[in-house]
Amino acid sequence: MRKSKIVWKMIRSILLVVIFFLLFLLIRSASWFLTNFHEVEISTALYQIVSPLKGTESGVLNGYINQCLYPSFSYAVLCVAAYTLFDMIAGYLILEMNIRIGSGTFCLRAGSGRWVKKVKVIVLWVAIVALGAGVWNRAVAVGLPEYVRSRIDTSTIFETEYVDPDTVAIRFPDKKRNLIVLYVESMEATYSSVEEGGGKAYDYIPELTELAKENVHFSNDNDLGGAAGVTGTGWTMGGLFSSATGVPYKLPVDGNNAGEYESFAPGLKGLGEVLLENGYQNYFMCGSEAVFGGRKAFFEQHGDYHILDYTTAKKDGIIPEDYHEFWGMEDAKLYEYARQELTKIAQQEEPFDFMMLTVDTHPADGYICSLCEAQYPSQYENVLACASSQAAQFVAWVSEQEWYEDTTIVITGDHLNMKADFWDDIGDYQRKIYNCFINLPEGILEGQMNDRDFTILDMFPTILAATGARIEGDRLGLGTNLFSEQETLPEEIGFDTLNSELKLYSNYYYKNFVVGDRN
Asked: Confidence band (pLDDT; 50, 70, 90) for 82?
């Protein structure tokens, strides 16, 4: 009997450690999320958490482990150890109190027995309820109740507003233009100075600011401005996906297999397929492992893209086999790789679509390379300045190539920055995603460039139009061709209405994009 009692207490202690660990972990994880990514939606966080760990920058993972996992386990063990110690000595505690009323004396005595058992139960439940209240408080802070409601309620916006690329005529010019799309990680117009139309005291991206001014860029105001982010677009894969398809990323979460989809939104048609059908060779390049977040699966299945990443850079001699910096290789190496590959690609007869994603400006502090100068007090400020310089140098190199005349360049951020401690000095400035269109074909700008209310979803038809393609109705997906006079959805129904609808579950999205198959 005594042996079974000991076994039961051991099992109980293990279960209590697990319960306390999970409660502490939820509280600390929510606090860590609010500290590091306080303006990021919980759907974005959940996607990042369940994405494959392969290719993740170690600093982010280590920070979470050190600030959340280890402390939570330590607190859980300490709490259960304290409770176990109390349980061991409680049987030997005797509390006695003599109360005198008139001539009589009454003795209240509590010792081993049912009183002690009740106290132990009360102490345990008070601790669990207190932690549970903490979990709920943090859940509300990160928006979990709204997220749960968005999974329950439904939207019909895709039934009423979605434009399937197969249902409209898309006509390319006889001489097709090459396309280079440079996604600069977390690039915002906010980084420019107030005088230049940004939100900062200093212009941390002077070269990109100048490129936008000298060429075509779309703005929500009369300054630098840019695109708004919406639900399902707030992280790298969400930004790439939405700007290439005109719909937000709302695929079912699939644990750590998110990057290994056998069938990645098979019913959805985007930029890659349209270009492929019109004779383009498609390429996607990044400095990390393309498998991370599902990028490799998406680009291979939606446009038959040739994948060039950290892994292929080793095979192609850009970096040694044992090389690893930041998420794989820094942007200085990435641009070197891009120049090498574009030189070869441009020799082919077919027009090309070359998409490239940088990484040095990834939060929390970015990556300082040998090209970066110490111009500003903080590392991230210097990383931004270096990224701006490198992007401009790459554009300058492209402009010197003999094939530049027939090449359109698009520079855009992939999403709004998740760096939580970088926005205290911008006041009420509305943060927007940077965009710039360079070397456009003649005669495509029909609409206005300023005072546009638009989102990254509009990049799909706008990038396509930047090649000279004519789109019947000037809408694809939920996006609008910004070169046209057609209103965007935010301009037509309001940004808040659009964003609220996109947060809700869509039967159409699941049936036609996730389950549906165009083949």
From this structure: confident
Among 338, 459, 315, 446, which residue's Cα sits nearest to residue 393? 338
Cβ atoms of 241 and 249 within 8 Å: the answer is yes
Domains of the chain: 2-92+119-141 (no CATH), 153-250+264-515 (3.40.720.10)
The answer to whether 299 touches 265, Cβ cutoff 8 Å, is no
Q: Which two tokens stand for residue 89?
A: 């000595």
Contact criterion met (CB below 8 Å) for 433 and 452: no
Residue 518, Cβ neighbours under 10 Å: how many?
Answer: 12
Alpha helices in 230-366 (DSSP H): 236-245, 271-277, 295-301, 310-315, 331-345
Looking at per-residue pLDDT, the higher value among 51 and 24 belongs to 24
Tell me what the pLDDT averaged over the chain comes to. 85
Measured between alpha carbons, how far is 519 from 514 in angstroms, rounded to an integer? 13
Q: What is the pLDDT of residues 462-498, one digit of tens each?
A: 999 999 999 999 999 999 999 999 999 999 999 999 9
pLDDT of residue 66: 78
Strands 435-438 and 407-413: antiparallel
What is the rounded CA–CA span in Å between residue 323 and residue 357? 19
DSSP sequence for 161-206: H-B-GGGS-EE--SSPPEEEEEEETT-BGGGSBTTTTSSBSS-S-H
> Quick one: 6 exposed, middle or buried, by C-beta within 10 A (0-12, 13-18, 19+)?
exposed
What is d(CA 47, CA 252) in angstroms, rounded to the nearest whole number?
9
Query: Could you give the CA distance from residue 232 to residue 241 in angstroms, rounded to a whole number?
Result: 9
Residues 293 and 258: their CA atoms lie apart, in Å, by: 6
Distance CA 356, CA 334 (A): 9
